[in-house]
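Incident log, structure service

09:12 report received: a user says their structure output differs between two submissions of the same chain.
09:20 pulled the input from the user's history:
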Amino acid sequence: MENLDITVLRQLLQWRQAGRRALLATVIRTWGSSPRPVGSIMALCETGAVIGSVSGGCIEDDLIYRYRRPAEAGTAAQSTHDIPDGPPERVKYGVSADEAHRFGLPCGGTLELLLEFNPDAAVLDALVRSLGEGKLMLRTTDLASGEVTVAPCERPEGLRDDGKLLRNTFGPEYRMLLIGAGQLAEYLSTMAIFCGFSVTVCDPREEHRGSWNVPAARLDTGMPDDVVRDFGVDRRTCVIALTHDPKLDDLALLEALGTEAFYVGAIGSRRNNEARRARMIEHFEQTEDSLASMRGPIGLYIGSKMPSEIAVSIMAEVLAVKNGVALPRDAQVGPAKDRIEPRESSEAGPVCFSGARAA
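09:34 re-ran on a clean worker, output below:
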């Protein structure tokens, strides 16, 4: 599944290239509770078609009512006015309690949108092409004239609105590189794709990848450490080792630890992860500090014993890290199991997934 922002911009481009009038709505400010974060975008075509979201649906309905062109003169589908030309407009929703109730905003929630009318197709095309090439782009809108410029940028930043210019960064898809093509990888890759990640699964073992059944994920047959090295890992990439085979997992993890990946982790029990760290320190000149960013056992502790549930716990942790959420220590698998599952009581348990009975 494509990154939502890219999907919105691509559809908006198609409408404009087809000669349709359309608008781009951006959440530029929120007060109190808000259903969508600052920087969220949606596009509306004169036909009433909408892609993306700035709320739970009610504000989208209001924008459709205001800007949809009637299908035929005299029909009931009359709009307040058609999508105009001209500079951007600011609009606030939820200023009063009645409006918050009408538009389905949380209690006390208020948001401000910037509406840009009939964005230039050539500038949109340049932006969509650059994003498709994996570039991080800064889109700047002159709030007086509506003129838009796009340019590459070094790092993602939050939306900025100084009253004269609106600056919003758009990035390529988040990427997930999984080492191992087993059943857990199938569940995890499916969830990641649903969450907008581009997924690559690496497994040189023919017997393990022979039954792979997630067509939307790219399958790579190279050696994992070579794949990580050639992957162009950046701050929008996570690398997760799932094979339980040190020959495959360890070298891939070592390569990933030397990158800007926002998440690097490995499946396995507490004992297996301790053994992995010891191997890396003894044989690969690593230190506790150099291994500090390697996660394991990975996932949030939800009592998982099924591969599908374990995939949920891992995906939840990945998303929390991606979104900058500090997780309480007791929510992580290792510390939680230390607290409620003493190692002595699970000596006979199998060594398997992060949420299973492994010590």
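09:41 both user submissions now match this output. Likely a transient worker issue. Closing.
09:42 reviewer note: The radius of gyration is 24 Å. Residues 73-80, 344-359 have pLDDT under 50 and may be disordered.
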